[in-house]
Amino acid sequence: MGWLFLKVLFVGVTFLGCLYPLVDFCGSGDTRGQKPNFVIILADDMGWGDLGANWAETKDTANLDDMAAEGMRFVDFHAAASTCSPSRASLLTGRLGLRNGVTHNFAVTSVGGLPLNETTLAEVLRQAGYVTGMIGKWHLGHHGSYHPSFRGFDYYFGIPYSHDMGCTDTPGYNHPPCPACPRGDGDGPSSRGNECCLWFAHRTHERDCYTDVALPLYENLNIVEQPVNLSGLAQKYAEKATQFIQHASASGRPFLLYVALAHMHVPLSGTRLSADRRGRRPYGAALREMDRLVGQIKDKVDRTARENTFLWFTGDNGPWAQKCELAGSVGPFTGSWQTHQGGSAAKQTTWEGGHRVPALAYWPGTVPINVTSTALLSVLDIFPTVVALAGASLPQDRHFDGLDASSVLFGWSQTGHRVLFHPNSGAAGEYGALQTVRLEQHKAFYVTGGAKACDGKVGPSRLHEPPLIFNLEEDVAEAEPLEEGSAEYERILPEVRQVLADVLVDIAGDKTSRVDYTRDPSVTPCCDPHRKACRCHTT
């Protein structure tokens, strides 16, 4: 790891005059006004119905609702997968997991990450003259060259994986809760942690807790805090994001800022949650905290580069099933056939609640205001759309699953995908397998079930041959599949089979990648292995 640090340190020393750590903001020539800036904000485990503009019962997203009124809201927008790492890999590559290799989550001890032969959005834009930054959760490999500092980002500030994958001193809200980090060489966990431990000892089958290694916070290649103070993390993200926008805007260089939030993933931050005077539950308070963070970033864009910055907000996947105590709202997607069978309707599954996510586009003077788009779009589309708007070129040696959605963004069209494929993301079936097919308003399932519910139980897996088919135009809750043998079913079934066969042939002939999913405890991020839980604070 030493040579990696020296490499980035050398670059940082070269550009220290640009007033931001390790980033070259000193462009040669004024490119401002020629290329747009991009701010991509990705929420974590946010339900479609968590956005007030989508679901009137939600009252906690005032800033996002304002953004919807000032821009475009997408009501049929989908994550590329129903869990963290695969969805993020698809955002940055425009390719499904069967192509980019990332079919399930990386671990604290993962040796590999997003394959190095996969080209990221940041790499493409940096070659096109952009300064690139990332704030927040990475979760695409942290060891060696898989770190975001070597995947096209000039600046990185954030956590290497989900914030439940390491202990903290302020564990926040979770169900069941996990203990706080141990304190001192001879001390056990804090009194709060001991209470959690005693309660948790009988529930270890429901959720894994990390007690040996604390959650680290990185700035570029350096761990600057371990464990992370979750209560202050949102504000740190807001400060770093607004600083990046300020410096990049002043430099004259176009910029890409990718902000991957911790919200609404559990544990929920404890900041101001218990002091809610209106008696709202922790989830609503965490939504408001996230909304304030997004509002700060949008305000900075408005003050510095309003008419030349495209802001795209969406989510990586849906929340845990609506039965969970701390779960978000999937809106109308709560009556699924699988729920009636005793399963889950949200995260990890390919039911609408697992991958239909909130999405907003904001670009004053370019994206029309207060428009609701029904186009079928995906996180996969971010890569090709941003590349096209930047005037850059897609890599020519591979195929992409996303499309350029510029015509939809500009209000010229309501046409998105005719077909989307939803990969298995930890529920039934093989990781990454394309066993759910969206074909216009119809959706076919070849496998259902197998997801872990909040009580730790795993629902039974069910194979469907012929597949279950729903008409989402008439049954968005996926409550009743079409009757096999009906005229509508018989008309759709051959088309479903054909588009699935076609994409599998295309993938087989494409340049695909393989992920190293091996694990080794020695790659666990640790700033001081001599202290319990790797404690250190360098900020």
TrEMBL record:
Belongs to the sulfatase family. Residues 36-392 form the Sulfatase N-terminal domain. SUPFAM superfamilies: Alkaline phosphatase-like. PROSITE patterns: PROKAR_LIPOPROTEIN, SULFATASE_1, SULFATASE_2. InterPro entries: Alkaline_phosphatase_core_sf, Sulfatase, Sulfatase_CS, Sulfatase_N. Its cofactor is Ca(2+). Keywords: Calcium, Hydrolase, Metal-binding, Signal. It holds the Pfam family Sulfatase_C. PANTHER family: ARYLSULFATASE FAMILY MEMBER (PTHR42693), ARYLSULFATASE G (PTHR42693:SF42). This is Sulfatase N-terminal domain-containing protein.
